[in-house]
Amino acid sequence: MRSEIEKATASEIAAAVRSGDICAVEVTKHFLDRIDAKNGELNAYTLVTRERALSESQAVDDIVASGRDPGPLAGVPYSVKNLFDLKGEITVAGSKINRENPPASTDATAVERLCKSGAICLGALNMGEYAYDFITNNPHDGPTRNPHDTTRSAGGSSGGSGSAIAGGLASITLGTDTNGSIRVPSSFCGIWGLRPTYGALSRAGSFAFVDSLDTIGPFARSPLDLALSYDAISGPDRRDAACSKRESDLVAASIETSIEPLRIAKLGGYFATGGEAFIHEAVDTVCRDLGVDNELELPQPELARTAAYLITAAESAQRHLDNLKKCPQDFDPFIRDRLFSGALIPAAWPLQAQRFRAWWKEQLAEIFRHVDVLIAPATPLRAPAFEQETFPFADEEIPLRANIGLFAQPVSLVGLPVVAAPVHLPGELPCAVQLIGPPHSEAKLLQVANALEKSGICSAPLANQQQLTADV
Amino acid sequence: MPFHNDCQTLSEVTAAFEAYEQALLSNDVASLQNFFWNSPHAVRFGVTEQLYGHEEIASFRQARIPNFNQRQELKRSISTFGDSFASVMYEYISNYDDGPRPGRQSQTWVKIEGDWKIVSAHVSLASEPHAKIRDNLASLGLIPEGENLPSIQKHFETTAFLAGGLMAYPLPNHIEPAPVFQP
Q1: Which structural domain, as residue segments, surrounds residue A289?
Q2: Does the annotation mark A87 as catalytic?
Q3: Considering only residues 201 to 220 of chain A, which have any Cβ-Cβ distance to chain B shorter than 8 Å?
Q4: Which residues lie across from B107 on neighbouring strands?
Q5: Between chains, do A328 and B145 touch, taking CB under 8 Å as contact?
Q6: Long-range CB contacts for residues B112-119, cutoff 8 Å, separation at least 24
Q7: Strand intervals (E) in B40-177
Q8: Is position A38 annotated as part of the catalytic site?
Q9: Rounded CA separation A437/A417 (Å)
Q10: Distance between the two ends of chain A, CA-based, in angstroms?
Q11: Which of A297, A409, A436, B137 is the most exposed place for a label (fewest CB within 10 A)?
Q12: Backbone torsions φ then ψ of A259, nearest 5 degrees
């Protein structure tokens, strides 16, 4: 394990650190070396918190040496999208404007809780400005590259979080998902991602995009690692008004539970039409493996997407109104004009969107009386090249940036939890499928994910090492 | 002497028009007043004001704070009739603080006691393709660069198109228009 620690999963690293087989400091140094060697090419990290990582890992080693419990994620190297507060660091949220802010006085809740579980913070990761993006071609920090093909996007807005996992520059990363910003990088980078139920994980100390829709969640190389991260972070938090008051179910402990009794269906209609054939074949492969033979359709998915779009446009513009007045030229031009446009939205539109959201929630609750898990593609295409501006979709060429989220956006409108399950075929770029459940069904989704990993249908291998190390 | 655009008359009116333009750009209040017919029958319509009589025109001139000092000529059309009557139509772009705006000016000139005087004038702003977006943004205190307006307008039109579908969908009446607030 020692020479290629990056190939181990988080749970394997934690087990080795907890048992004293390997020092947390050694793991940390190994990952810091890898970041030094490879981040120049991938541009996943915008900040490496070297001192913090070394002192946190020394503390874990001291706890192990004293015979105490260092926590379930002992020594696991993780990093966070640069919209999470790290004590003493400026939370840039992918922007130029926030660089003038004072450093964060405390860690984000999620960081605090990962730290408490023994995990080691390596730094902060690149993202699309203010999370209004699916590409991560950041005008201030540069593009984050896809470890599977560095001419291509790692997805966005949590692009650095995806690239760091597929490139072996962290074992766990945190991202945020408003309309697909965890599921898109999962798909483009071929890794596991969990967008939890809205309100399940505290967003306190993360720079918000759209309060009505924002969630935070982990990326990892196995479903168990997602589950351990979820368990470490979950629980009520008064610092986040939307955070669920209920004590959340621990999900790692039940991950091996048989999925035999679960009723699983493929989403048809809107979700089975358009985009790359590879994507829909991946969905079918997953369905075959799970023995899924029924297909169902959601009512009005296009309108669900529109509703998410309108809520996003109106709320995000409101959030940035002051800076749009003060320093419009400091925004990413791609984001700025959308924010200006969002500022003009008549009240009737987002209010109708909220009404639709309430109605759609009722419709989906009815569907989830008869089914436990729904399966759909995560993205309509695999990782695009940076210069790509359109892609083929149902006999048309449609604009890329505006449409990457078309399969992701509807389901997050009503805050459903989704596991992005990666599918790799030899010589092919990967993609991910969405495993979608009713609110607070993370445990069941991770059981299905675990079964797919066990059967070998889904996996999150590191990107081809030769390609990566070629110019190091 | 030709009745329309006699050479001598045309060159006099052109010179008078250009002198007026110069006085306007340098906000030479005394000259500006002098260009207008000193009569209660002189009339000047501005973009926002209607001024009747030389007195009203003069006091407007004295109070005016110039909001541009450059106008780029787009087109002018001068017609003289006989040796003492002319109409001048002028299109231009002036640079305001919030960007360039196209404008129009029409003047009626009459030679009175040997001097060309403006007896009536009307200034208006030509409508712009993005004026509505710009004005709506301005009402929120937002002043984007003029060159961004087409892209903002395009985003807004896309949003409006999508919203149209959602607004038309017949949702049940019992669903409240705002998320339920729990105090």
Answers
A1: 2-469
A2: no
A3: 212
A4: B88, B121
A5: yes
A6: B112/B37, B112/B84, B116/B12, B116/B13, B116/B16, B116/B86, B117/B35, B117/B36, B117/B37, B117/B38, B117/B42, B118/B20, B118/B35, B118/B36, B118/B37, B118/B42, B118/B44, B119/B36, B119/B37, B119/B39, B119/B41, B119/B42, B119/B43
A7: 43-45, 50-52, 71-81, 85-96, 99-112, 115-125
A8: no
A9: 6
A10: 22
A11: A297
A12: -95, 5
Number of domains in chain A: 1
Q: Give chain B's end-to-end CA distance (angstroms, integer).
A: 87
Active site residue A7: no
CB A440 within 8 A of CB A197: yes
Predicted-complex ipTM score: 0.90
Is A160 within 8 Å of A81 (Cβ atoms)? yes
Q: What is the DSSP string of B73-87?
A: EEEEEEEEETTTEEE
Q: How far apart are CA A406 and CA A228, in angstroms?
A: 29
Count of positions (residues) in chain B: 183
Specify whether the CB–CB gap between A237 and A204 falls below 8 A.
yes
B36-63 core/surface letters (b: 16 or more CB in 10 A; e: else):
bbeeeebbbeeeeeebebbebbbeebee
Distance CA A289, CA A283 (A): 10
User: If you write DSSP's letter for every residue of A34-58 in order, what string do you get?
Assistant: HHHHHHHHH--EEEE-HHHHHHHHH
Q: Which amino acid is at A153?
A: S
C-alpha distances out from residue A301 to A261, A267, B179, Å: 28, 11, 20
Cα A239 off chain centre by: 22
| Residue A4 burial (C-beta neighbours within 10 Å; 0-12, 13-18, 19+) | exposed
Mutate which of A211, A270, A300, A306 to test chain B, going by most B C-beta atoms within 10 A? A306
Closest residue, chain A, to B166 (C-alpha):
A303
Phi–psi pair at A12, nearest 5 degrees:
-70, -45
Distance CA A200, CA A215 (A): 8
Query: Domains of chain B (ranges plus CATH)?
Result: 7-125 (3.10.450.50), 131-168 (no CATH)
A221-242 confidence digits (pLDDT tens): 999 999 999 999 999 999 999 9
Chain B nearest CA to A403, separation (Å): 13
Supply B147's token pair: 């060159």
Q: Domain with A345 in it: what CATH number? A: 3.90.1300.10
| Radius of gyration of chain B from its Cα atoms, rounded to whole angstroms | 24
Q: CB of A351 within 8 A of CB of B144?
A: no
User: What CA–CA distance (Å, rounded) separates A160 from A181?
Assistant: 11
The answer, as to whether pTM is greater than 0.80, is yes
Q: Token pair for residue A278?
A: 């590879």
Instruction: For chain B, 183 residues long, give each residue's pLDDT as a single digit of tens.
Output: 899 999 999 999 999 999 999 999 999 998 998 999 999 999 999 988 999 999 999 999 989 888 777 889 999 999 999 999 999 999 999 887 767 788 999 999 999 999 999 999 999 987 777 889 999 999 999 999 888 999 999 999 999 999 999 999 999 999 988 777 777
Inter-residue contact A226 to A252 (CB < 8 Å):
no
Which amino acid, B36? F
Query: What would the two tokens of residue A122 be?
Result: 């390596």
If contacts are CB pairs under 8 Å, which of residues 97-156 in chain B contact chain A? 133, 136-137, 140-145, 148, 151-153, 155-156
Which of B140, B148, B163 lies closest to A337 in CB terms?
B148
Alpha-carbon distance A229 to A219, whole Å? 9
